[in-house]
Amino acid sequence: MKNVLQYIEANRDRYLSELTELIAIPSISTNPENKKDIQRCAEWMSKHLTSIGMEHAEIFPTAGHPVVYADWLHAPGAPTVLIYGHYDVQPVDPIDLWTSPPFKATIRNGNLYARGSADDKGQVFIHLKSIEAFLKNTGKLPINIKMLLEGEEEIGSEHLDPFIREHKKRLKADLVMVSDTSMFARGVPSVCYGLRGLAYMQIDLIGPNKDLHSGSYGGSVHNPIQALSEIVASLHDKNGRVTIPGFYDDVRSLTKKERDAFKKLPWSDKKYAKELGVKALYGERGFTTLERLWARPTLECNGIWGGFTGEGAKTVLPSAASAKISMRLVPDQSADKVAKLFQKHIDRIAPNTVQVKARYLHGGEAALTPIDSPGVKAAVAALEKGFGKKPLYQREGGSIPIVVQFKRVLGLDTVLLGFGLPDENAHAPDEHIALENYFGGIRSVAHFYQALADL
Ligand code: BES
Ligand code: ZN
């Protein structure tokens, strides 16, 4: 292990310049115009996997973006880990708010800034560079590794689900490892054991059959933007609870033990509100912020549009209005069921003055990993060695939809070992990863592979 750690230290510069190369490929999964870049990124990944000593690197086309697979299976008797990550990234708008160009990795104040630096190229690379350190240095790995990288995580992993069903045998393993979450805070490493699910909806309203002069027609028809606002506003009550009938029916209650554990975490509402620049926090009454973030379902309006939004003033009574609404889900809610409840509710409350249609865009379920599983134990030991500090246990509010399918289809628990930080601007301008966590991650992951072999 000593040599492996020395190798990581000795190769710091190259470990950054290669990540810079990967980041330069704008693999934005939601943009049709980046389809070629997605393909190029998959090819780059596959080549790089081979160059570090992984075997059988292959690109699998899907009906969407390709899946990249590679393995190294020469540790007989040792566990097999399926490492999952994603090479696609979120769009970069609003581009004006980036301090440096999003696809040109730039180091400032001990952080590497770029789209994908934390979510998730940087974290995937933590594994590749740890694997490289073993293979180039000792010619072998302490465990067997299967690497599965997808290009559609940020748009709902639609084609990965059929892929894992079709390739069950190829993906057979003892556990799954994902590095696509955050540490609890700077200097506070953590193992994550829970993710929320998601049901993503779009509501489209149509009023009059064309845009109207708001003077000639205002007062005679229901403005679709007003109707939509009334609908959206009615989806929460005064206690911050979602008003859709049945929404909370399948929500698993927090145990007293877990509530107590959350309360012991080093958290301050005041500090959190200050960091976010809000005067006061908001959420479902009766729960703490961490409970609301990690273990309660929510409903958010992601975007709302219609009518005139240009500079200056234009008097118009628009013909249409739309909103994107997502619901974060917790165990044991079903995404399909919640989406149906949403649609039924919208149909019921829609006024007869406009046409309203709610569509289900995509969804996935929440996931929990037992904290006494061997993988979690190995992760705890590894973080302690990699960061010189005992990690905390935490859940996350974000979603990685395929995690629950790993359990359902492959029967595998997932260890979530994340090296981002909650305030690293994932999905936003100036996304970054702290260099100390990039390298701390590479060291910890090396310890994790070894700890698994020693179990
Ligand atoms: N890396 C995130 C997941 C994440 C976010 C984990 C925040 C922990 C905290 C992932 O890439 C992501 O953003 N997922 C999407 C999934 C969605 C599009 C189905 C998300 O959570 O919005
Ligand atoms: Zn991610």
Describe this structure in words.
This protein has 14 helices and 17 strands. By secondary structure, it is α/β, with parallel strands linked by helices. Strand 1 and strand 2 (67-72) form a beta hairpin. Helix 1 (2-10) crosses helix 4 (121-138) and helix 4 (121-138) crosses helix 14. Ligand BES binds at residues 119-120, 153-154, 156, 180-182, 198, 364, 396, 398-401.
The outline comes out as: globular
Helix coverage percent: 25-40%
> How far apart are the termini?
16 Å
> What is the residue-averaged pLDDT?
97
> Regions with pLDDT < 50 over 5+ consecutive residues?
none
Q: How does the major sheet shape up? A: 6 strands, mixed
Instruction: Enumerate the strands of the largest sheet in spatial order, edge to edge or round the barrel.
Output: 1-2-6-3-7-16
What small molecules does the structure contain? ligand BES, zinc ion
Number of strands: 17
Radius of gyration: 23 Å
- How much of the sequence lies in strands comes to 15-25%
Helical segment tally? 14
Structural class: alpha/beta
Summarize this structure as a short list of keywords or feature phrases:
17 strands; alpha/beta; globular; binds zinc ion; 6-stranded mixed β-sheet; 4-stranded antiparallel β-sheet; 455 residues; binds ligand BES
